[in-house]
Design goal:
Elements (H helix, E strand, L loop, with lengths): L5 H24 L4 E14 L7 H4 L2 E17 L2 E14 H5 L22 E6 L3 E15 L3 E8 L31 E10 L3 E8 L14 E10 L2 E10 L2 E12 L2 E11 L4 E15 L2 E11 L13 H9 L8 E12 L2 E10 L5 E12 L2 E11 L9 E2 L5 E2 L4 E9 L1
Antiparallel strand pairs: 1-2, 1-21, 2-3, 3-5, 4-5, 5-6, 6-7, 7-8, 8-9, 9-10, 10-11, 11-12, 12-13, 13-14, 14-15, 15-16, 16-17, 17-18, 18-21, 19-20
Amino acid sequence: MPPKHAGRRSAVKWLASVVVSWLVFVTTAVPAIEATGRLKWFSSTTKLPQADVLEPLLGKLQTDLRVDLRVLLKHEIGPVRFEFDPTVTWSGGDAVQILNLGGFPLEQRPGSDSLRFFDWSDELIGTADYRVITRVDRLSASLRQPNWSLQIGRQAVSWGNGIVFQPLDLFSPFAPTTIDREFKPGVDSLLFESLVGQTSEFQALFIGRQESDLAPTAQSHTVALKWTQSIQEIAFDVLVAEHLGNEIVGFSMTAPVAGALVRSDVAKSCDEFECTTSGLVNVDYTIAIRQALLYVFGEVYHNGFGVKDLSEEIPARLTASLARGEVFTTMQNYASVGTNITWHPLWSQSFIVIRNIEDRSGLFQSAVTYDPSDVARIQMGVSWPVGEDNTEFGTNRIDEETTAGGNPSLFFSFSRYF
Protein backbone atom coordinates (compact mmCIF):
# COMPACT_ATOMS: atom_id res chain seq x y z
CA MET A 1 0.00 0.00 0.00
CA PRO A 2 1.53 3.39 -0.95
CA PRO A 3 2.27 5.93 1.79
CA LYS A 4 -0.59 8.25 2.77
CA HIS A 5 0.99 11.35 1.23
CA ALA A 6 2.54 9.69 -1.83
CA GLY A 7 -0.09 11.16 -4.16
CA ARG A 8 0.49 14.65 -2.81
CA ARG A 9 4.26 14.38 -3.15
CA SER A 10 3.91 13.10 -6.72
CA ALA A 11 1.61 15.98 -7.61
CA VAL A 12 3.98 18.53 -6.07
CA LYS A 13 6.95 17.01 -7.91
CA TRP A 14 4.98 17.09 -11.16
CA LEU A 15 4.06 20.72 -10.63
CA ALA A 16 7.63 21.67 -9.77
CA SER A 17 8.95 19.94 -12.88
CA VAL A 18 6.44 21.79 -15.09
CA VAL A 19 7.40 25.18 -13.62
CA VAL A 20 11.13 24.49 -13.91
CA SER A 21 10.76 23.22 -17.47
CA TRP A 22 8.89 26.35 -18.52
CA LEU A 23 11.46 28.62 -16.92
CA VAL A 24 14.28 26.82 -18.72
CA PHE A 25 12.37 26.92 -21.99
CA VAL A 26 11.54 30.61 -21.69
CA THR A 27 15.02 31.75 -20.71
CA THR A 28 17.06 29.59 -23.10
CA ALA A 29 15.20 28.02 -26.01
CA VAL A 30 12.99 30.95 -26.93
CA PRO A 31 14.53 34.13 -25.53
CA ALA A 32 12.11 36.31 -27.52
CA ILE A 33 9.20 35.23 -25.36
CA GLU A 34 8.01 37.93 -22.98
CA ALA A 35 7.56 36.29 -19.57
CA THR A 36 5.94 38.05 -16.61
CA GLY A 37 3.76 36.89 -13.76
CA ARG A 38 1.98 37.53 -10.51
CA LEU A 39 2.05 35.77 -7.16
CA LYS A 40 -0.87 36.72 -4.95
CA TRP A 41 -1.89 35.98 -1.37
CA PHE A 42 -5.53 36.59 -0.42
CA SER A 43 -7.09 35.99 2.98
CA SER A 44 -10.42 36.86 4.55
CA THR A 45 -11.87 36.58 8.04
CA THR A 46 -15.61 36.54 8.72
CA LYS A 47 -17.10 37.08 12.16
CA LEU A 48 -19.69 34.44 13.06
CA PRO A 49 -22.36 35.17 15.67
CA GLN A 50 -23.26 32.49 18.18
CA ALA A 51 -26.50 31.74 16.31
CA ASP A 52 -24.73 31.11 12.98
CA VAL A 53 -25.06 27.56 11.73
CA LEU A 54 -21.27 27.38 11.23
CA GLU A 55 -20.27 28.69 14.68
CA PRO A 56 -20.32 25.25 16.43
CA LEU A 57 -18.00 23.91 13.72
CA LEU A 58 -15.65 26.86 13.15
CA GLY A 59 -15.89 28.99 16.26
CA LYS A 60 -16.30 32.75 16.22
CA LEU A 61 -14.20 33.33 13.08
CA GLN A 62 -14.24 31.82 9.61
CA THR A 63 -10.85 32.20 7.92
CA ASP A 64 -10.13 31.51 4.27
CA LEU A 65 -6.79 31.61 2.44
CA ARG A 66 -5.75 31.54 -1.17
CA VAL A 67 -2.40 31.70 -2.98
CA ASP A 68 -2.47 32.18 -6.72
CA LEU A 69 0.42 31.99 -9.19
CA ARG A 70 -0.13 33.24 -12.72
CA VAL A 71 2.56 33.18 -15.42
CA LEU A 72 2.00 35.40 -18.48
CA LEU A 73 3.84 34.31 -21.62
CA LYS A 74 3.62 36.37 -24.82
CA HIS A 75 5.39 35.99 -28.13
CA GLU A 76 5.07 37.80 -31.46
CA ILE A 77 5.96 36.56 -34.93
CA GLY A 78 5.26 39.37 -37.36
CA PRO A 79 1.56 40.30 -37.09
CA VAL A 80 0.73 37.16 -35.08
CA ARG A 81 0.69 37.33 -31.28
CA PHE A 82 0.55 34.31 -28.97
CA GLU A 83 -0.54 34.35 -25.32
CA PHE A 84 -0.33 31.59 -22.73
CA ASP A 85 -1.28 32.11 -19.07
CA PRO A 86 -1.12 28.99 -16.89
CA THR A 87 -2.27 29.37 -13.28
CA VAL A 88 -1.83 27.38 -10.09
CA THR A 89 -4.10 28.09 -7.12
CA TRP A 90 -3.81 26.82 -3.55
CA SER A 91 -7.00 27.25 -1.52
CA GLY A 92 -7.24 26.51 2.17
CA GLY A 93 -9.14 27.46 5.26
CA ASP A 94 -12.66 26.93 6.45
CA ALA A 95 -14.40 27.34 3.09
CA VAL A 96 -12.57 24.28 1.75
CA GLN A 97 -13.40 22.22 4.82
CA ILE A 98 -17.12 22.98 4.76
CA LEU A 99 -17.43 23.40 0.95
CA ASN A 100 -19.09 26.76 1.59
CA LEU A 101 -18.82 28.28 -1.87
CA GLY A 102 -22.06 30.26 -1.92
CA GLY A 103 -22.73 33.90 -1.11
CA PHE A 104 -21.14 36.97 -2.66
CA PRO A 105 -17.48 36.27 -3.53
CA LEU A 106 -14.74 38.77 -2.68
CA GLU A 107 -12.24 36.90 -4.85
CA GLN A 108 -12.44 35.02 -8.12
CA ARG A 109 -12.64 31.33 -7.38
CA PRO A 110 -10.79 28.67 -9.34
CA GLY A 111 -13.33 26.46 -11.00
CA SER A 112 -13.68 23.68 -13.49
CA ASP A 113 -13.86 24.07 -17.25
CA SER A 114 -17.35 22.57 -17.43
CA LEU A 115 -18.53 25.65 -19.36
CA ARG A 116 -15.51 25.76 -21.65
CA PHE A 117 -14.97 23.90 -24.90
CA PHE A 118 -11.64 22.54 -23.67
CA ASP A 119 -11.10 21.11 -20.20
CA TRP A 120 -7.77 22.60 -19.22
CA SER A 121 -8.23 22.54 -15.45
CA ASP A 122 -7.18 19.86 -13.01
CA GLU A 123 -7.28 19.40 -9.25
CA LEU A 124 -3.78 18.23 -8.38
CA ILE A 125 -4.48 17.87 -4.68
CA GLY A 126 -7.81 17.68 -2.90
CA THR A 127 -7.94 17.09 0.83
CA ALA A 128 -10.19 18.06 3.71
CA ASP A 129 -7.86 21.00 4.44
CA TYR A 130 -6.79 22.44 1.09
CA ARG A 131 -6.99 22.16 -2.68
CA VAL A 132 -4.45 22.78 -5.43
CA ILE A 133 -5.93 23.51 -8.87
CA THR A 134 -4.12 24.16 -12.13
CA ARG A 135 -5.82 25.89 -15.01
CA VAL A 136 -4.94 27.41 -18.37
CA ASP A 137 -6.67 30.81 -18.31
CA ARG A 138 -5.25 32.13 -21.59
CA LEU A 139 -4.10 30.25 -24.66
CA SER A 140 -4.71 32.23 -27.83
CA ALA A 141 -3.31 33.41 -31.13
CA SER A 142 -4.24 36.71 -32.75
CA LEU A 143 -3.60 38.12 -36.19
CA ARG A 144 -3.74 41.93 -36.29
CA GLN A 145 -3.88 44.08 -39.39
CA PRO A 146 -4.38 47.87 -39.65
CA ASN A 147 -8.18 47.61 -40.08
CA TRP A 148 -9.08 44.18 -38.73
CA SER A 149 -8.03 41.44 -36.34
CA LEU A 150 -8.77 37.77 -35.74
CA GLN A 151 -8.30 36.11 -32.36
CA ILE A 152 -8.78 32.44 -31.60
CA GLY A 153 -8.38 30.45 -28.41
CA ARG A 154 -8.99 31.01 -24.71
CA GLN A 155 -9.14 34.75 -24.16
CA ALA A 156 -10.99 37.39 -22.13
CA VAL A 157 -14.03 38.91 -23.84
CA SER A 158 -15.93 41.88 -22.39
CA TRP A 159 -18.98 43.65 -23.78
CA GLY A 160 -21.20 46.23 -22.15
CA ASN A 161 -20.84 49.36 -20.03
CA GLY A 162 -21.57 48.13 -16.52
CA ILE A 163 -19.49 49.21 -13.55
CA VAL A 164 -21.03 46.99 -10.86
CA PHE A 165 -23.52 44.88 -12.83
CA GLN A 166 -23.14 43.53 -16.37
CA PRO A 167 -26.39 42.73 -18.26
CA LEU A 168 -24.62 42.69 -21.66
CA ASP A 169 -21.55 40.76 -20.53
CA LEU A 170 -22.51 37.13 -21.08
CA PHE A 171 -18.94 35.82 -20.93
CA SER A 172 -17.75 35.15 -17.35
CA PRO A 173 -18.53 38.59 -15.87
CA PHE A 174 -17.11 39.66 -12.52
CA ALA A 175 -19.35 39.39 -9.48
CA PRO A 176 -20.43 42.81 -8.17
CA THR A 177 -18.43 42.23 -4.98
CA THR A 178 -15.19 40.97 -6.57
CA ILE A 179 -12.24 43.05 -5.34
CA ASP A 180 -9.52 42.05 -7.80
CA ARG A 181 -10.55 42.59 -11.42
CA GLU A 182 -7.11 42.52 -12.98
CA PHE A 183 -7.62 39.26 -14.89
CA LYS A 184 -11.00 38.30 -16.28
CA PRO A 185 -11.52 34.54 -16.78
CA GLY A 186 -10.92 33.47 -20.36
CA VAL A 187 -13.43 31.72 -22.63
CA ASP A 188 -12.79 29.48 -25.64
CA SER A 189 -13.75 31.72 -28.51
CA LEU A 190 -13.20 33.06 -32.00
CA LEU A 191 -13.40 36.86 -32.28
CA PHE A 192 -13.26 38.90 -35.49
CA GLU A 193 -13.06 42.70 -35.30
CA SER A 194 -13.05 45.15 -38.19
CA LEU A 195 -13.08 48.92 -38.56
CA VAL A 196 -15.68 50.17 -41.02
CA GLY A 197 -14.80 53.63 -42.16
CA GLN A 198 -13.74 56.18 -39.56
CA THR A 199 -16.66 55.91 -37.15
CA SER A 200 -17.86 52.29 -37.15
CA GLU A 201 -16.69 48.90 -35.94
CA PHE A 202 -18.02 45.38 -36.50
CA GLN A 203 -17.41 42.37 -34.24
CA ALA A 204 -18.36 38.72 -34.71
CA LEU A 205 -17.93 36.32 -31.81
CA PHE A 206 -18.27 32.56 -31.40
CA ILE A 207 -17.86 30.87 -28.00
CA GLY A 208 -17.74 27.10 -27.90
CA ARG A 209 -18.72 25.00 -24.89
CA GLN A 210 -18.90 21.35 -24.08
CA GLU A 211 -22.28 19.98 -23.08
CA SER A 212 -22.72 19.80 -19.30
CA ASP A 213 -25.37 20.07 -16.61
CA LEU A 214 -25.16 23.86 -16.96
CA ALA A 215 -25.36 23.71 -20.77
CA PRO A 216 -27.21 20.46 -21.39
CA THR A 217 -28.31 20.94 -24.99
CA ALA A 218 -26.62 21.00 -28.34
CA GLN A 219 -27.17 24.79 -28.27
CA SER A 220 -24.42 25.21 -25.69
CA HIS A 221 -22.52 27.72 -27.79
CA THR A 222 -22.76 31.50 -28.18
CA VAL A 223 -22.85 33.33 -31.51
CA ALA A 224 -22.94 37.13 -31.35
CA LEU A 225 -22.68 40.07 -33.74
CA LYS A 226 -22.08 43.65 -32.60
CA TRP A 227 -22.05 46.95 -34.48
CA THR A 228 -20.53 50.08 -32.92
CA GLN A 229 -21.33 53.49 -34.35
CA SER A 230 -19.83 56.79 -33.20
CA ILE A 231 -21.55 60.09 -33.89
CA GLN A 232 -19.29 62.88 -32.70
CA GLU A 233 -18.74 62.10 -28.98
CA ILE A 234 -21.63 59.64 -28.64
CA ALA A 235 -21.11 55.89 -29.21
CA PHE A 236 -23.87 53.32 -29.82
CA ASP A 237 -23.64 49.53 -29.74
CA VAL A 238 -26.24 47.17 -31.21
CA LEU A 239 -25.84 43.43 -30.79
CA VAL A 240 -27.74 40.25 -31.60
CA ALA A 241 -26.80 36.88 -30.19
CA GLU A 242 -27.81 33.30 -29.70
CA HIS A 243 -26.63 32.30 -26.24
CA LEU A 244 -27.24 28.82 -24.86
CA GLY A 245 -30.51 28.54 -26.74
CA ASN A 246 -31.65 32.08 -25.87
CA GLU A 247 -32.08 34.81 -28.47
CA ILE A 248 -30.64 38.12 -27.26
CA VAL A 249 -30.92 41.65 -28.63
CA GLY A 250 -28.88 44.35 -26.92
CA PHE A 251 -28.28 48.07 -27.11
CA SER A 252 -25.79 50.32 -25.31
CA MET A 253 -24.86 53.99 -25.44
CA THR A 254 -22.03 56.12 -24.08
CA ALA A 255 -22.21 59.93 -24.03
CA PRO A 256 -20.38 62.76 -22.23
CA VAL A 257 -22.68 65.08 -20.26
CA ALA A 258 -21.37 68.18 -18.45
CA GLY A 259 -17.96 66.65 -17.86
CA ALA A 260 -19.36 63.30 -16.71
CA LEU A 261 -19.70 60.09 -18.72
CA VAL A 262 -23.19 58.56 -18.97
CA ARG A 263 -23.65 54.96 -20.11
CA SER A 264 -26.58 52.62 -20.59
CA ASP A 265 -27.09 48.95 -21.44
CA VAL A 266 -30.30 47.12 -22.37
CA ALA A 267 -30.52 43.38 -23.08
CA LYS A 268 -33.67 41.48 -24.10
CA SER A 269 -33.36 37.70 -23.75
CA CYS A 270 -35.96 35.26 -25.10
CA ASP A 271 -36.26 31.51 -24.84
CA GLU A 272 -39.09 29.39 -26.23
CA PHE A 273 -41.38 30.33 -23.33
CA GLU A 274 -40.80 33.98 -22.36
CA CYS A 275 -38.72 37.13 -22.79
CA THR A 276 -37.01 39.16 -20.11
CA THR A 277 -35.37 42.58 -20.28
CA SER A 278 -32.42 43.68 -18.15
CA GLY A 279 -30.67 47.01 -18.20
CA LEU A 280 -28.68 49.68 -16.42
CA VAL A 281 -27.78 53.34 -16.47
CA ASN A 282 -24.62 54.67 -14.85
CA VAL A 283 -22.68 57.91 -14.63
CA ASP A 284 -19.15 58.58 -13.45
CA TYR A 285 -17.04 61.68 -12.93
CA THR A 286 -13.44 62.41 -12.00
CA ILE A 287 -12.30 65.61 -10.29
CA ALA A 288 -9.05 66.82 -8.74
CA ILE A 289 -9.32 68.20 -5.19
CA ARG A 290 -6.03 69.68 -4.01
CA GLN A 291 -3.56 66.80 -4.17
CA ALA A 292 -6.22 64.08 -4.33
CA LEU A 293 -7.94 62.63 -7.40
CA LEU A 294 -11.60 61.78 -6.75
CA TYR A 295 -13.57 59.35 -8.93
CA VAL A 296 -17.29 58.90 -8.20
CA PHE A 297 -20.00 56.84 -9.88
CA GLY A 298 -23.63 55.85 -9.56
CA GLU A 299 -25.49 53.01 -11.22
CA VAL A 300 -29.10 51.76 -11.37
CA TYR A 301 -29.65 48.16 -12.50
CA HIS A 302 -32.72 46.08 -13.37
CA ASN A 303 -32.39 42.28 -13.40
CA GLY A 304 -35.11 40.97 -15.70
CA PHE A 305 -34.54 37.41 -14.48
CA GLY A 306 -35.10 38.37 -10.84
CA VAL A 307 -38.06 38.04 -8.47
CA LYS A 308 -39.82 40.79 -6.52
CA ASP A 309 -39.81 38.85 -3.26
CA LEU A 310 -37.51 36.10 -1.98
CA SER A 311 -40.53 34.10 -0.90
CA GLU A 312 -41.36 33.56 -4.58
CA GLU A 313 -40.19 30.47 -6.40
CA ILE A 314 -36.90 31.13 -8.18
CA PRO A 315 -37.48 30.82 -11.96
CA ALA A 316 -35.54 28.11 -13.78
CA ARG A 317 -33.82 30.65 -16.06
CA LEU A 318 -32.57 32.60 -13.05
CA THR A 319 -31.33 29.43 -11.36
CA ALA A 320 -29.41 28.47 -14.50
CA SER A 321 -27.92 31.96 -14.92
CA LEU A 322 -26.82 32.01 -11.26
CA ALA A 323 -25.20 28.58 -11.62
CA ARG A 324 -23.33 29.66 -14.77
CA GLY A 325 -22.09 32.85 -13.12
CA GLU A 326 -23.86 35.18 -15.56
CA VAL A 327 -25.89 36.95 -12.87
CA PHE A 328 -25.22 37.14 -9.13
CA THR A 329 -28.39 38.56 -7.59
CA THR A 330 -31.86 37.09 -7.29
CA MET A 331 -34.13 40.15 -7.11
CA GLN A 332 -34.95 42.84 -9.65
CA ASN A 333 -33.81 46.36 -8.86
CA TYR A 334 -30.53 47.66 -7.45
CA ALA A 335 -28.74 50.96 -6.97
CA SER A 336 -25.01 51.37 -6.45
CA VAL A 337 -22.79 54.32 -5.62
CA GLY A 338 -19.05 54.37 -5.16
CA THR A 339 -15.90 56.38 -5.11
CA ASN A 340 -12.17 55.93 -5.44
CA ILE A 341 -9.85 58.52 -3.89
CA THR A 342 -6.19 58.69 -4.87
CA TRP A 343 -4.73 60.32 -1.76
CA HIS A 344 -1.15 59.91 -2.94
CA PRO A 345 0.53 58.24 -5.96
CA LEU A 346 1.12 55.22 -3.67
CA TRP A 347 -2.17 55.27 -1.72
CA SER A 348 -5.80 55.01 -2.79
CA GLN A 349 -9.08 54.11 -1.14
CA SER A 350 -12.37 52.89 -2.57
CA PHE A 351 -15.93 52.81 -1.21
CA ILE A 352 -18.96 51.14 -2.72
CA VAL A 353 -22.54 50.68 -1.55
CA ILE A 354 -24.90 48.23 -3.29
CA ARG A 355 -28.57 48.58 -2.37
CA ASN A 356 -31.41 46.18 -3.09
CA ILE A 357 -34.33 48.52 -3.79
CA GLU A 358 -37.02 45.90 -3.11
CA ASP A 359 -36.04 44.58 0.33
CA ARG A 360 -33.76 47.50 1.32
CA SER A 361 -30.83 45.26 2.17
CA GLY A 362 -27.38 46.19 0.97
CA LEU A 363 -23.64 45.78 1.08
CA PHE A 364 -20.93 48.26 2.06
CA GLN A 365 -17.41 47.60 0.85
CA SER A 366 -14.22 49.59 1.31
CA ALA A 367 -10.61 48.86 0.41
CA VAL A 368 -7.29 50.65 0.92
CA THR A 369 -4.61 50.01 -1.71
CA TYR A 370 -0.89 50.67 -1.20
CA ASP A 371 1.66 50.29 -4.00
CA PRO A 372 5.09 50.31 -2.31
CA SER A 373 6.81 49.74 -5.67
CA ASP A 374 6.10 48.98 -9.32
CA VAL A 375 6.15 45.24 -8.56
CA ALA A 376 4.12 45.02 -5.35
CA ARG A 377 0.61 45.84 -4.16
CA ILE A 378 -1.03 45.57 -0.74
CA GLN A 379 -4.78 45.76 -0.32
CA MET A 380 -6.97 45.51 2.76
CA GLY A 381 -10.57 46.28 3.49
CA VAL A 382 -13.98 45.35 4.81
CA SER A 383 -17.18 43.93 3.33
CA TRP A 384 -20.25 44.54 5.48
CA PRO A 385 -23.73 43.28 4.51
CA VAL A 386 -26.70 45.13 5.98
CA GLY A 387 -30.34 44.07 6.05
CA GLU A 388 -33.16 42.56 8.00
CA ASP A 389 -33.50 38.80 8.41
CA ASN A 390 -34.29 36.84 5.24
CA THR A 391 -33.36 39.62 2.87
CA GLU A 392 -30.89 39.20 0.02
CA PHE A 393 -27.86 40.70 1.75
CA GLY A 394 -29.11 40.19 5.30
CA THR A 395 -29.01 37.17 7.58
CA ASN A 396 -30.90 34.07 6.52
CA ARG A 397 -32.87 32.93 9.56
CA ILE A 398 -33.25 29.16 9.42
CA ASP A 399 -35.27 28.94 12.64
CA GLU A 400 -35.68 30.89 15.87
CA GLU A 401 -32.19 29.99 17.10
CA THR A 402 -30.17 29.44 13.91
CA THR A 403 -28.98 31.84 11.20
CA ALA A 404 -26.73 31.69 8.13
CA GLY A 405 -24.78 34.35 6.23
CA GLY A 406 -25.08 38.10 6.37
CA ASN A 407 -21.85 38.50 8.37
CA PRO A 408 -19.10 41.17 8.00
CA SER A 409 -15.67 40.21 6.62
CA LEU A 410 -12.18 41.65 6.64
CA PHE A 411 -9.83 40.87 3.76
CA PHE A 412 -6.14 41.29 2.98
CA SER A 413 -4.14 40.65 -0.18
CA PHE A 414 -0.54 41.00 -1.25
CA SER A 415 0.53 40.78 -4.90
CA ARG A 416 4.08 40.46 -6.18
CA TYR A 417 4.74 40.95 -9.88
CA PHE A 418 7.77 39.62 -11.72
